[in-house]
Amino acid sequence: MTDEEILRALYDETLVGNGPRVLELTEQGLDAGMAPETMLFEALIPSLEEVGARFERGDFFVPEMLIAGRAMAGALDRLRPLLAETGAQTVGTFLMSTVKGDVHDIGKNLVNIMLEGAGFHVIDLGVQVSPEKVVAGVLEHKPDIVGFSAFLTTTMPMFKANINALQKAGLRDQVIVMVGGAPVTQEYADAVGADGYAADASTAVRRAKELIATKRAAVGV
């Protein structure tokens, strides 16, 4: 296969979530001497962007997003160390967690996959994450964005607790805060003082990119 054929097949197989074939094509590309960033930026990321677009149009649903995301995640596992060696630029660093009192993580994990697919470096603190752990994570990883997920209405107040903890630690102005989860609304996000809200994984990626671009433009980066 030519490089162009490999890229086209990578795009197509990621779109339908054929994980084994995506991994096989990734290895083929590497064996043929293709740069890992070429496969990432010319096939894998465009394919996942198309998945997101189809989801927003109602042509794809969560299961299709999940299998496409997982197919890409397999390729990313193979390419990530090689991308690090080449010094490929990431879009930004995203620190993710499900809030204290909540153990739900399917939505969070899907957002993580989509963010990684879009070129973000994602650090996942897991579930049941306390405000103290959030502050420690921000100090350690210095993310551009901090994301909080809540699936239960009873745990949504932890958004405010986390934001207050960041404020108290003098870190609130250093990070963008995004929130999401099944019961969360834009109105609630505004009420707790979050910078961004997304109803689904595809929107989360787009919103995260917008927020980073706006912040960097404001500081002249």
UniProtKB/TrEMBL annotation:
Q: Please verify whether the record's keywords include Lipoprotein.
A: no
One Pfam family, please name it. B12-binding_2
Give the UniProt keywords, A-Z: Cobalt, Metal-binding
Tell me the protein's name. Answer: Cobalamin-binding protein
- Domain of life where this protein originates: Bacteria
Record's CDD domains? Answer: corrinoid_protein_B12-BD
Residue ranges annotated for the B12-binding domain, each copy included:
91-221
Task: Give every B12-binding N-terminal domain span.
Answer: 1-91
